[in-house]
C-alpha cells in the first residue's frame, strides 16, 4: 500500500533513509521532480522543475531542468493557420523555447466553449512583442485576446559518462 510522507521545513533525519520502489512527482526545493526519456514538450511545468532520465545511457544526459518560464497573454486575435502571435510581453522568450498557447476550439468558425492548449516551439521573437510559432494554429482553432501563453526552456543535465 502506497503511503505519502510530508517533510516539513527544517525537519532532519538522523541515520539512513532508505526507499524501496520508486518515487516520482515529488518536490525538491521549489521544483517538481519527475522522470522521463526526454525534456518535456507538452504540459505546463514550472521554473526549476527537474525530469530525471528514466532510460540513462553513457552519452545521454542524466536529466533536464526548466531554467526559464515566462507567462503572458495573447494581445491580438490569432486566427486559424496563423504562425505570428502578438503577446502582451515577449520579455524572456527566446527561439527554441517550448510554448503553450490556449486556443478556442471552433465549429463552423464559432467558438464551442471548449479550449485546448497548442504545444509547439518558438521559431523566433520579432521586433515588439510578436513570437513566431514553429507550428501554425490548427484550422479548427483560434487564440483569443487574453488567452494564456506559457514558454519554458529546458537544459540538459550533463552525462556522467567517463
Walkthrough of the structure:
This protein has a domain at 71-151: Elongation Factor Tu (Ef-tu), domain 3, CATH 2.40.30. Helix content is 0%, strand content 43%. It has no helices and ten strands. It has strands at 26-28, 31-36, 50-53, 63-73, 84-86, 98-107, 110-126, 130-133, 141-142, 148-157. Strands 1, 2, 3, 4, 5, 6, 7, 8, 9 and 10 form a ten-stranded mixed beta sheet that branches.
What is the percent of helical residues? under 10%
Q: For the terminal residues, how far apart are their CA atoms?
A: 39 Å
What is the global morphology? elongated
Helix/strand order: EEEEEEEEEE
Number of distinct helices: 0
Radius of gyration: 20 Å
Structural class: mainly beta
* Total beta strand runs: 10
Strand content: 35-45%
Average pLDDT over all residues: 84
Q: Biggest sheet: strands, sense, closure?
A: 10 strands, mixed
* Secondary-structure arrangement, i.e. CATH architecture of the domain at 71-151: Beta Barrel
CATH overall fold name of the domain at 71-151: Elongation Factor Tu (Ef-tu), domain 3
CATH class of the domain at 71-151: Mainly Beta
- Poorly predicted parts: 1-17
Amino acid at each position: 500500500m502506497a503511503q505519502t510522507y510530508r517533510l516539513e521545513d527544517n525537519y532532519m533525519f538522523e541515520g539512513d533513509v532508505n526507499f524501496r520502489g520508486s518515487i516520482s512527482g515529488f518536490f525538491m526545493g521549489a521544483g517538481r521532480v519527475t522522470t522521463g526519456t526526454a525534456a518535456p514538450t507538452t504540459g505546463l511545468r514550472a521554473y526549476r522543475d527537474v525530469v530525471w532520465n528514466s532510460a540513462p545511457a553513457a552519452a545521454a544526459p542524466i536529466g533536464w531542468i526548466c531554467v526559464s518560464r515566462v507567462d503572458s497573454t495573447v494581445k491580438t486575435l490569432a486566427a486559424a493557420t496563423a504562425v505570428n502571435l502578438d503577446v502582451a510581453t515577449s520579455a524572456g522568450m527566446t527561439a527554441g523555447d517550448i510554448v503553450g498557447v490556449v486556443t478556442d476550439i471552433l465549429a463552423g468558425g464559432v467558438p464551442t466553449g471548449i479550449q485546448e492548449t497548442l504545444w509547439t516551439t518558438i521559431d523566433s521573437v520579432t521586433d515588439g512583442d510578436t513570437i513566431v510559432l514553429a507550428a501554425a494554429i490548427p484550422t479548427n482553432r483560434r487564440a483569443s485576446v487574453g488567452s494564456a501563453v506559457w514558454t519554458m526552456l529546458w537544459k540538459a543535465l550533463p552525462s556522467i559518462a567517463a
